[in-house]
Amino acid sequence: MLKIENLHAEIDGKEILKGLTLEVGAGEVHAIMGPNGAGKSTLAYVLGGRPGYEVTQGSVTFMGEDLLAMDPHERAAAGMFLGFQYPVEIPGVSNVQFLREALNSQRGTRGEEPLSGGDFLKLAKEKAGLLKLDMEMLKRFVNVGFSGGEKKRAEMVHMGILDPKLAVLDETDSGLDIDALKTVGEGINSIMRSAEKGVLLITHYQRLLDYVKPDHVHVLANGRIVRSGGPELALQLESEGYEAVAA
Question: Model's pTM, two decimal places?
Answer without folding.
Answer: 0.91
